[in-house]
Design goal:
Elements lengths: L3 H14 L12 H11 L2 E7 L4 H10 L3 H10 E7 L5 H6 L7 E5 L5 E6 L4 H13 L7 H7 L7 H13 L5 H10 L8 H9 L9 H16 L2 H7 L2 H16 L2 H12 L8 H14 L3 H18 L2 H21 L3 H11 L2 H20 L3 H17 L4 H13 L3 H14 L8 H15 L1
Parallel strand pairs: 1-2
Antiparallel strand pairs: 1-3, 3-4
Helix pairs in contact: 4-6, 8-9, 13-14, 14-15, 15-16, 16-19, 17-18, 19-20, 19-21, 20-21, 21-22, 22-23
């Protein structure tokens, strides 16, 4: 048996022995981390990740173990690692974390010094830590910039600097871009330089904002002077603005902006409107307003229409045709990629897509359900799902949640376990199912 005292002694000697040590992530709460940071004159770093996120795993594998990274972060930060869909969900919502990985740098009062997302190589990750430390004593700290912005909307140079700094801090710059475009004197609005600026910032231009106005007023001029590449990008810029407005509304939890997005989305050519994308935006909008009644109404209407317009026989025929096609392709050329598609088609591609959508929408509805009538409606949707496919994990999972809501704990746990056993392992959210079961068991034991 290994003597624990020897292990502790060796670990304490690691820095002196030259043994590389990466980041030390502490298993404590955010409140404890803030208090510890204050006591040790440090800052707080949080890595928000999810179990299914590829770039998160790459950071954990390639960057966090580096000795250079460990030296910088362990010396200056109390480091936390939180799963944004499990134990870190509440804190992720508090700091409006919507992408993974997200890196958050906080002062000892919990105020954001720097926020960034996506995989970052060693030099950039070290630079972010240095910028977070430097921002403490800077007049252009994130907090100061946010406080100054409303008072400097007519200050062209401040706004230009504000956009640059906010971008460095990993913050949304759409408001800054819009404000600067209203007062800037550097470029003529019809010039090639302005065209380049608008193309570069297409995801930071908001529907109804100054950028879109400039674009509309000068579109023909831009097309005449654009290179072939710019003309191609220009033809797509309206879609970029639309998508950027959606992202900004979600990121800032801005219900009014989401409403603007929904109205603009509806004005697109009919062949570009996807009913499920529109539904997603409307559900997010009502979620932002805490309007459960409207949320449930549009969900129920969508599901009922979906059921009414769905022919189970057509689904089964289409899935059988797909399976035969993939089987023929695999038999002729048995590559691993073809085998994966063949296995997926065995489950029924069209049926699985429909059942997964039914599962996700119904669970959102169930979370907000308060009456027997609403629970009864979910029961009808589940019956339809089993008609589409008699034995399927998506309806087992939904039925488990319904049983649990009704207090039928044992049946709920049995179905949840069966759902997990049969859940497609290729689904990136599969890893969260075990956590859902764990939480269900925990609540059942209280």
């Amino acid at each position: 048996m290994i003597n624990k005292k020897i292990v502790v002694f060796i670990l304490s000697l690691m820095p002196f022995l030259g043994i590389a040590q990466g980041m030390n992530f502490e298993h404590i709460t955010l409140e404890e981390a803030l208090n510890k940071a204050k006591a040790e004159n440090k800052l707080v770093f949080i890595d928000f990740y999810t179990a299914w996120c590829g770039p998160c795993k790459k950071m954990a594998r390639e960057i966090f173990p580096l000795s250079t990274v460990g030296e910088m972060y362990n010396k200056n930060f109390i480091n936390l690692k939180l799963d944004a869909e499990k134990e870190g969900e509440a804190i992720a919502k508090q700091y409006n974390v919507t992408g993974y990985p997200t890196f958050l740098y906080l002062d000892t009062n919990g105020k954001v010094l720097l926020k960034d997302s996506a995989y970052r190589p060693e030099d950039m990750f070290l630079d972010m830590a240095q910028r977070a430390i430097s921002s403490l004593d800077s007049e252009y700290s994130l907090e100061n910039l946010k406080n100054e912005f409303p008072n400097r909307l007519n200050d062209e140079q401040f706004l230009k600097m504000y956009i640059k700094k906010m971008d460095e801090f990993g913050q949304d710059i759409s408001e800054g871009v819009d404000a600067w475009l209203k007062v800037q004197t550097e470029m003529d609005e019809s010039s090639p330089e302005m065209l380049k600026y608008l193309l570069k910032n297409s995801r930071n231009i908001l529907i109804g904002g100054k950028g879109e106005q400039i674009l509309d007023e000068n579109y023909d001029t831009y097309m005449k002077q654009a290179s072939s590449f710019e003309a191609k990008m220009l033809s797509r810029i309206k879609t970029q603005i639309l998508n950027g407005t959606f992202d900004t509304a979600v990121r800032n939890k801005d219900a009014e902006l989401m409403k603007v997005y929904i109205e603009a989305y509806k004005q697109q050519p009919e062949n570009r409107i996807k009913e499920d994308d529109l539904l997603e935006a409307e559900l997010i909008y009502y979620e932002m307003l805490d309007d459960d009644t409207s949320y449930k109404t549009i969900t129920a209407n969508y599901i009922n229409n979906l059921i009414e317009q769905t022919s189970i026989e057509e689904i089964k025929t289409a899935d059988e045709k797909s399976y035969n096609m993939y089987k023929k392709a695999y038999d002729n050329d048995p590559k691993p990629a073809r085998e994966r598609m063949l296995q997926a088609s065995k489950e029924g591609l069209k049926a699985s897509k429909l059942l997964k959508e039914l599962n996700e929408l119904s669970k959102g509805y169930l979370e907000k359900s308060t009456s027997k009538k609403e629970l009864k409606a979910i029961g009808k949707w589940i019956k339809f799902g089993y008609k589409v496919k008699e034995d399927n994990c998506f309806m087992d999972d939904l039925q488990a949640e319904l049983f649990f809501k009704k207090g039928k704990t044992q049946k709920a746990l049995e179905l949840k376990e069966r759902a997990i056993k049969n859940w497609p392992k290729t689904d990136k959210k599969f890893v969260n199912k075990a956590y859902e079961l764990e939480q269900m068991k925990k609540e059942a034991s209280i």
